[in-house]
Amino acid sequence: MNTAYNSLLDPDSLRQGAEAKLYDCVYLGKPAILKERFSKKYRHEELDKRLNFARLRAEIRGINKAQQVGVKAPAIYFVDTNRHILIMERVEGPTAKDWIESQRQRAEEEFKVQAKFGEVLGGEIAKIHLSGLIHGDLTTSNMIVKNGDPGNLHLIDFGLANSGKVIAEDKGVDLYVLERAIQATHINCEHIVDAILNGYKSVNAKQGEAVMARLIAIRLRGRKRDMVG
Amino acid sequence: MSPGVSRCYELQPDPYDYTQRRAIRICLFVDVENASELRGKLRTGEIDAALVRAELIIEPFLFLAAANKAVYQYAHNRMSTRSLAAELIYSLSPSRNISDSLNTFGVAENSRTILAAVYDDEKGSKMKKLAKQIKGRAVPLDYLKEISNFKLIRRAYKIYDPSITLDNIDEEILTRMITKECIS
Ligand SMILES: Nc1ncnc2c1ncn2[C@@H]1O[C@H](COP(=O)(O)OP(=O)(O)OP(=O)(O)O)[C@@H](O)[C@H]1O
Ligand SMILES: [Mg+2]
Hints:
A: two-stranded antiparallel ribbon; B: 15% strand; CGI121/TPRKB (chain B); nucleus (chain B); tRNA processing (chain B)
């Protein structure tokens, strides 16, 4: 045998998410991530299966669609639809969340580098939106800055993605979720949000205008809700 | 064929059970002169191997991923074709049309370069036997880089976005071939 491996999974690498267990593994010699959506005991068995399958399918379709328009997402190596398992490329590097925080030490450079990150991110989101794909869970934990290079951003976690009939409102909500996630996770990051929106508009002016108009309306609704609730 | 030219890789048909072992041996042949005859022998069953058009394979890992998917489908009684060798070729394709897939990725009448694969051949005896029937030269797998044809690959996988280059095309190809049952 020229190449052989011992075990596939590294049990110490278990990360338990809300919906899924993730392990580091080596698949046919390449560093990979195994993501398994586990069943939840409190859900009816049939419903549980259907939900896990729907999320797995959404994730697979989302990654396909993103890659088709040149937006980087992990390559899929293996799928088991019965056990709701996905093995995918391991993208090396910090999540955008960790990366943004790690920039804080770099006083002067920080601002410029983060703005560059924001523009790239906005551009990637605009590209998937233009193809009719909504990510559905845009947070800074669901993106990886590969090798710490903000120009090499990968989107992950497409389990809530949808690509049916998509309107400007859906795109606006996608951006609004991200805006709120950034405000909640990171302090003093208005410049990143601004850069994201600039990057977004620069890809396609028509889409940009329509979605910005929706975003303003959605923010307003959100603010009203905050005041009432 | 000099020994050591072909390579044997372990497969992982079950991600949770690495005791279920299978392997695949791969060898690259160039200057092949009898592709038409080889096709005949595949049809009659005289040859039991996957003979693939090497110019459509961008790198070995993707070939292994398809080979592993084929043994996984086999282990779960979910093969779409009648043999593991055909299932491997079918698994390389982004299409769910079986005959289209076999025609596109399987050895053609006028093929000059062939990627040959046999399952569970740890000792290399099956590959040695196969090599005797191929009129061509076995070369190290590293040579695949010189043979894969970006233009033909783009067409075979219908990948046209200009942002997809030689650097990132393998990611999209992998996703497309591995997940074809889940996307339409
Ligand atoms: N392909 C990958 N490469 C590197 N790291 C990854 C990859 N996929 C996931 N991760 C890491 O694992 C974490 C959780 O992954 P993911 O977001 O896909 O699952 P989750 O949030 O638990 O899933 P869900 O939102 O379905 O509950 C990510 O934030 C990231 O740190
Ligand atoms: Mg997540």
